[in-house]
Every structure is written in structure tokens, then in C-alpha cells.
Amino acid sequence: MVHRPALPRRGRNPSLAPFWPISLPDSTLRRAQAGLLIALAAAMLTAPAAAFDAAQFASRELPSAHLSGHGSLSRFGFHLYDAELFVGPDGPPPPWEVRPLMLDLRYARPFKGRSLARRSLQEMTRLQMATDADRQRWADQLAAFLPDVSAGQHLTGIFKPGDGTHFFSDGIPIGHIAGEAFARAFFGIWLDPKTSAPELRAALTGQAR
């Protein structure tokens, strides 16, 4: 009789263990699945978003609009933002409170939303737009929805006669303020002849030399 060596029993030879099917407890599988879902969600959140295109946004929100002009604002050597003004077929304002327009600001530096609202109040006050009570009310409304912005982020204001001014952050709606009086005061920060940034106004309205 030929003596045959006994075959190793399943589960007894450590050298073969890596090749055997492994049965994991249900709790371990659930933890692994949860970890995979978290990793996928994190990858989606960190994936680069499509760049915001102001011209495309304007053509969608104001189909008859075209670019009136663009420029930049700097203070004390610091680049603050780039601006683009889109207007309807009647051309750039004035009077901006009776014509549709879109003003897009692409920030070059981070700013707090409340700082932007406070600066808007200061500029509207300097121009003596509306009453003190109106300006303060509008500033409070702006402070309630203007976000903290980072470099490269867009804030956009769109005015349509009879519909007020709608605000967007990178194309996402963030707030609305009704009335032509607010539009005249707010957009006057950039478009009024007495603006504190006359060179930017000239660039936006196509009057730059």
C-alpha cells in the first residue's frame, strides 16, 4: 500500500490562508461600505467646480444684454476686484433705474459679507442716495445675505425694472431687494457721475479713453 501524505485541512495551514475565501462579519462590511461612501463624497466636494462665466450668465438672465465695459478697482496698491457691466439694447445707463442691467464683481481678495454691506452703506451715504432710514434698511438687508467671499468668487447683481435687484454668488441666488430706489442707490456706487471710482465708471460705461 502506497502511503499518501495527508492533505492539509482547510483552515489549518497558514501558508494557504491568503488564497482562501474570507468571510467578514456584517459589521465589518458595513464599516467598509460607509468608509467608501465617505471617500466618494469627499472626492466630489473637492473636485474643481465649473468656472463661473459672467457673459454666459448674463445671456441667460438678460437675453438681450451685451457687455458694456469692464475694469478693475485697486486701493493703496491692492487689487480688490474686477467688474463687468452688461446692459440691454438701449445701452448703458443713465438712467439705470429704468433699464435692465447686470453688474458682476470677481473678487481678488477675501472680504467679509458684513464689510461689503457696510461699505455699500458708506458709498450710498456719500452720494446722498435716498433717506438715512432707507439706506440703513438696505444695508441691513444686504448684511443678511451677502456671503464672506474668497479670491476668485463672483458676486452679481441683476436689476430688472418692476422686479427689483436679484443677487447671486457664483450664479447661485442669495437675495433680492425690491424697488427702483434701491437700484438707483446701489448701482450708483459704480455708475453715478459722483462715484468714488470714476475711472472704473468710465471703463464700465464704455467711456474710458
- Give a count of the beta strands, DSSP E runs of length 2 or more: 6
Main pleated-sheet profile: 6 strands, antiparallel
* CATH-level-2 architecture: 3-Layer(bba) Sandwich
Count every helix, treating DSSP H or I runs of 4 or more residues as helices: 6
In short, what is this structure?
InterPro entries: Chalcone_isomerase. The protein is an alpha+beta fold. It contains six helices and six strands.
List the helices and strands and how they pair.
Blueprint: H1 26-46, H2 54-61, E1 66-75, E2 78-87, E3 101-107, H3 113-126, H4 132-145, E4 154-160, E5 164-169, E6 172-177, H5 180-191, H6 198-204
Antiparallel strand pairs: 1-2, 2-3, 3-4, 4-5, 5-6
Helix pairs in contact: 3-4
Describe the fold and architecture:
The chain is of the alpha+beta class. It has a single domain, classed as 3-Layer(bba) Sandwich (Chalcone isomerase). The chain contains 6 helices and 6 strands. The protein has a 6-stranded antiparallel β-sheet with strand order 1-2-3-4-5-6, with helices on both faces. InterPro entries: Chalcone_isomerase. This is Chalcone isomerase domain-containing protein. Pfam families: Chalcone_3 (PF16036).
Question: What structural keywords apply?
Answer:
209 residues, alpha+beta, Chalcone isomerase, 6-stranded antiparallel β-sheet, 6 strands, globular, disordered N terminus
